[in-house]
Amino acid sequence: MRDILDDLEAGKYLSDPDPVRRAQIQMKTHLPKRFYKAASVAPAEDGFAVHLDGKPVRTPGKALLALPTERAAALVAAEFAAQGETINPVTMPVMRLVNTAIDGVASDPQAVLEDILRFASADLLCYRADAPQGLVERQDQHWDPVIDWARATLGARFNLAQGIIHVEQPRETIAVLGVHLSQRADPLRLAAIHVMTSLTGSALLALAVDFGELDTEAAWSAGHVDEDWQIEQWGQDAEAVARRSARKRDMMAAAGLLEALKG
Question: For this UniProt entry, which segments traverse the membrane (predicted)?
Fold first, then answer.
């Protein structure tokens, strides 16, 4: 059992970061057959462990796949239970995120925190279009409330700019965000925030979801204002649709894990 799970997470079936390319690779790769009948959750010393046919699942790094709340563990168990005759890791975004958090983020949470701050220093929400007017208004509609919330609630004031020329953010602003993130340094929570940050290009949107200021759909829409505008003007091809669908699935999984960690 462990050999198969190791292969799934070691990259044998996830050998490309692009979701469409991964799917193409999978079409040529034999997926392993499902080797268990039932997935369940059981109490463990570190919270709640995921079991397959009564045996605890371990991460690729051999750590017990245990989560602090039963709801969070149930998300992973549900992904295992939903597998058909074969195991398709692409359809298990929570499991992949949890494995990353336990085996990777836990060993160096500061590196992940700093990467989120790098996104914040060039946050999507700070770079505004000067035309067309419809796009300008749409950015203002989706982004201004989040900028205002960051100032009022987080104490973080961001400088805005038109175009793509880099605008320097106040050191105090990045430091304030660093304090808020340090209070969320649990590996699972930090990993989920990082996923949402990288998928939207905005640490502010990810933090707004974590704070309960935005729901996930609103954050996803805010992170794709520019893309949606372009789609409306020019349309999109099937590959772009597939790529976006895969990214949104990962976004929803990260947000779902955040919510489940609350108990």
Answer: none
